[in-house]
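F.,

This is the one I mentioned.
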C-alpha cells in the first residue's frame, strides 16, 4: 500500500486508532467539506482499503429522511498494508544465508528458498509444452511488475528479465542468480541456464532451456545444475563458491 497523499495517510492512521469514523468526524480531522471527504472515501473504497457500514440509530434516536449515514473502517487489506519493509527483511535474511560457512549447507538453504517460491508459482503454470509454460511465467512475472520478454527467434524460447526482481540482493551476491535459475527450472519443468546476466555486462538477464522441450514424467528428475558464481560482498571484495544443486522433479 503506497499512500503518497498525506491526507490519505492521516485518514488511514485515524481509522487504525478509532476502528471506525463518520463523515463528520473525518471533516474535523481533515478540515475539509463533507463532499471532499466523501470523494476521498470513495477513492479509498475503490482501492479496497476502506469499507463502510450503515450507521443505524440507537434506541431513542430520531430517524429521518435524506442521505443514509455510514461509518467507515479499514478493510483487511487496509489493516495489513501498514508497512512495506519487505526489502530490509529480505536483505537481512539473505545476509544470514550468505553467512553460512559450509557451501553445501548454504546451497541447500538456497534451494529450499527457490523451492518455496516455486510452490507459490507452480499452481499458475500448467501448460502442456515448454512454450506455453514460459508464456504463463511471463504473464505471472508481469503481474508482479517484473518486465519480461519471451523470444523464440533462436528456436528455443528464451525468457529475458528486463529488470532484476531482486536488484538490491543481486548487486551484492550472485547466489540470487543461482536461486532464480533453480526457481525457473522447478516451475517450468525444464532445466534452464543463465545465458546472459547483467552482472557480467549483459543488457538483461536471460534464461535459456538447457535441453529440448520434453515434458518430464512424474518420477523423472531434472539434471544436476552446477553453478559457479562470484559472490560480491558489500565491501567490494569477491570470492568464488561452487554451488551444486541437485534439482528434483516437482511435477
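My design for it:
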Amino acid at each position: 500500500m503506497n499512500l503518497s497523499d498525506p491526507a490519505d495517510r492521516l485518514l488511514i492512521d485515524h481509522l487504525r486508532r478509532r476502528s471506525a469514523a463518520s463523515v463528520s468526524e473525518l471533516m474535523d480531522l481533515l478540515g475539509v467539506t463533507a463532499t471532499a471527504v466523501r470523494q476521498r472515501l470513495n477513492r479509498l473504497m475503490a482501492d479496497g482499503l476502506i469499507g463502510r457500514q450503515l450507521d443505524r440509530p440507537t434506541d431513542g434516536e430520531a430517524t429521518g429522511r435524506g442521505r443514509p449515514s455510514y461509518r467507515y473502517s479499514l478493510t483487511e487489506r487496509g489493516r495489513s498494508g501498514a508497512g512495506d519493509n519487505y526489502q530490509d527483511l529480505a536483505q537481512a535474511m539473505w545476509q544470514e544465508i550468505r553467512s553460512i560457512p559450509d557451501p553445501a549447507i548454504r546451497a541447500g538453504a538456497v534451494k529450499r528458498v527457490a523451492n518455496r517460491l516455486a510452490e507459490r508459482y507452480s499452481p499458475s503454470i500448467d501448460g502442456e509444452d515448454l512454450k506455453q509454460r514460459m508464456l504463463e511465467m511471463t504473464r505471472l512475472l508481469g503481474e508482479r511488475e517484473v518486465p519480461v520478454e519471451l523470444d523464440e527467434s533462436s528456436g528455443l524460447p528464451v525468457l529475458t528479465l528486463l529488470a532484476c526482481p531482486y536488484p538490491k540482493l543481486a548487486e551484492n551476491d550472485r547466489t540470487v542468480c543461482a536461486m532464480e535459475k533453480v526457481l525457473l527450472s522447478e516451475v517450468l519443468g525444464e532445466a534452464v541456464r543463465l545465458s546472459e546476466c547483467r552482472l557480467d555486462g549483459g543488457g538483461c538477464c536471460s534464461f535459456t532451456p538447457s535441453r529440448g522441450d520434453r515434458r518430464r514424467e512424474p518420477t523423472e528428475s531434472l539434471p544436476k545444475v552446477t553453478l559457479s558464481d562470484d559472490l560480491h560482498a558489500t565491501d567490494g571484495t569477491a570470492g568464488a563458491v561452487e554451488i551444486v544443486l541437485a534439482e528434483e522433479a516437482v511435477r
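The radius of gyration is 25 Å.

Talk soon.
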